[in-house]
Amino acid sequence: MKRIKVSNTNYIITMPYRHLAGLDFVEYQENSATASARKLHEGEVDLALIPVAELAAHGGYVGLNYGLASRTGHGTIKLYHRVPLEGISRIYLYQGSSSSALLLRLLLKRFWSFSPMLVRTPDYVTGDMLARNEALLVLDESPVIPTCEGMRCTDLVREWYRVTGLPFVALVWAMRPGALTVKQHQILNRALQQSATARLSLARPVTVGDDVKLKESEKYVNTVRQAFAYYLNSRIIEGLQNFLDMSADCNLLPACRYRPAVYSLFKKEAGSSVAAMPVWQILQNVLDGKRLDISSAVRLARKASIADLSMVAEQLRSKVVIKPSFAVQVLHQEEHLRDKNILESRLQRMVESGIKSLRFDPQNSRLNKIEHYETLFHKIKERYGLFIEAFSVGQLILLARRNRISTQEAIARLVTAGLDAVSAEGGELLITTRMREAGHTSFSAEEWLRVVRWVHRYGAGSCCCLRISQNDSWEERFVHLHKLRLLQDELPGFRYFFTCGESYPENIELHLRITLTARIFLDNVPLLQVSDFDSQKINDVLQADTCASRLAVKINSKESNYRRALTAVRKNIWLYDIQDEKSRRSSVSELH
Fold first, then answer.
1. Sign of the torsion formed by the C-alpha atoms of 151, 156, 162 and 167
2. What pLDDT does residue 269 have?
3. Do 360 and 401 reside in the same domain of the chain?
4. Using one digit for the tens of pLDDT, what is the confidence trace for 204-220?
5. Cα atoms in the Cβ-side hemisphere of radius 13 Å centred on 427
6. Where are the beta strands (DSSP E) in 19-129?
7. What is the pLDDT of residue 539?
8. 102 or 500: whose pLDDT is higher?
9. Radius of gyration (C-alpha) of the chain in whole angstroms
10. Is 581 a domain residue?
11. CATH number at residue 437
12. What percent of the chain lies above the pLDDT cut of 90?
């Protein structure tokens, strides 16, 4: 019997599922719910207990009818606050929140009448650290609550039950069709049944030092027995589907139908009872403003014609811009900024030529004291008012390490000094195994996203990209884009998206197909940019004709005459009907 990798969540309330570790064909592991979803998305595990939000985001999984649900309106998702709900201006989300954050967003958008800022925060934040008009979203699965004493508590699951009268499902066991044989599924099903009746096993491990006595643990287990369900019966699945439908109606998730694993008499593998959606229907859903899930996006990329993809991408572009624009950015290397007189001369010529954007590319080996960059950015901002883009995520991490400060502090100081945006370098494909292959060992995909999240939170921007490589699968590409879309939903800050990688005659169609479907999938990033536009490159020309919102070029700071360089830029793009976004203020648009 083939071995399978199974990922359970490392929560107290899902401990009964540890029974799966005893199966001889199971390689068992425990992770956070979001990490389990990532591993399932990226093919590192075959079966995982994942948030229902991630089930809908993928769209290609089938469920085993087990998970974690609240059937009576008592839940573990709590909002702690000091003032009435309407007076809350900011809510801090715990790290790793997925379905709980989605439930909060749904209640805010559909049932409540206020719109606070949502900020993901480290797990060590406690109630006494909050301002009066701030609130904290907590996964409260402990018998005692030491962090939020004396505060009001709103049980979000109880709120869901109050407005719908239906159970709430937070987690579900999911897999790809065909991941299990019939025999494996039968054995797993028996083990899951045993897990569902093993809640008393929670009493022993639910202890936090000496704070939780056995009596409190037993009381907690009794609450779990009465309020929570592990088997998803028809009533619970109705609640799950209702939650997915409402979230899709509010455009918080792609539309999704929960599909249990089924088997045929002749093909003894787990499959699906629902046929794949036709390509024309997927395209129509996109035009109707509905979100793409990963599975539908993969089908679209493989099956749709270039003409249909171009038509949809053009429709989406027309909603953002009337005509594509062009932007010019002057590129400065580290050594260009060390001579004060040369730097001031070049910056002055930039301003006189109407260029408003500066990109600074430091070398890792020459990363300096952070005070050097703070002083430099402050002077440039104060005297010239230029838009400053500098540093990659890896360089921010390295700079913080060399200055013995946290990355968060480094970002805060640089943004305060005048940093406007960071580059997308290192985030070309946020798939763990692919990043290791590419040599990105100094940071993980999750760390890249975490650093960019801090950049956005402090008010600076960034850009995002996707590499073009024939070695990457379609699913890997859209899992990467899903991560970017999630971050943009949470903390908008991606100003534009672009594709990167070498273009060859044999991969022109692949390049265009990737770009078009990425434009369709990333529905919350406003612009698609052709970076380093060259009218002699066919891929650049095709993107400009079909989906690009902006054509961008870079001028090296060594150029002796910026006006002459700008004339060459205009000649490069004269065939295109281009508008200047800020022509009333300067001869060249800023790069945002």
1. negative
2. 52
3. yes
4. 544 444 454 555 555 66
5. 30
6. 26-31, 47-51, 62-70, 77-81, 90-94, 117-121
7. 64
8. 102
9. 26
10. no
11. 3.20.20.70
12. 49
Within-domain flag for 345: yes
Give dist(CA 352, CA 203) in Å, integer: 73
> Do 27 and 89 belong to one domain?
no
* Residue 587 scores a pLDDT above 60: no
Give the C-alpha separation, 205 to 509, whole Å. Answer: 56
Q: Residue 489 corresponds to which tokens in the numbers above?
A: 């939903």
The domain spanning residue 262 has which CATH number?
Answer: 3.40.190.10
Q: Give me the pLDDT at residue 534, please.
A: 60
The amino acid sitting at 42 is E
Those residues whose C-beta lies under 8 Å from the C-beta of residue 155, and which sit 6 or more positions away, are 73, 74, 75, 77, 78, 79
| pLDDT tens-digit series, residues 242-267 | 999 999 999 999 999 999 987 655 55
Percent helix, strand, coil in the chain, to 5, is: 45, 20, 35
Reading the block at residue 3, the tokens are 């071995």
Predicted confidence (pLDDT) per residue in 149-194, tens digit: 778 999 999 999 999 999 999 999 999 988 888 899 899 999 998 8
Together in a domain, 348 and 474: yes
Q: Evaluate whether residue 287 is within a structural domain.
A: no
Is the residue at 586 inside a domain? no
Structural contact between residues 419 and 460, judged by C-beta atoms closer than 8 angstroms: yes
Instruction: Check whether residue 373 and residue 459 sit in a common domain.
Output: yes
Name the amino acid, one letter, at 234: S
**59 and 92 belong to one structural domain:** no
* Rounded-to-integer distance, Cα 229 and Cα 236, Å: 9
178 and 82 share one domain: no
CB within 8 A of 38, min separation 6: which ones?
44, 432, 446
What's the whole-model pTM score?
0.86
Phi/psi at 401 (5° precision)? -65, -45
Asked if residue 215 and residue 146 are part of one domain, the reply reads no
- Crossing angle (nearest 10°) for helices 340-352 and 370-384: 40
Provide the domain limits for residue 42: 4-68+169-276
| Residues 334 and 194 both lie in one domain | no
b/e 304-337 (16+ beta carbons within 10 angstroms → b): beeebbbebbeebbeeeeeebbbbbbbbbeeebb
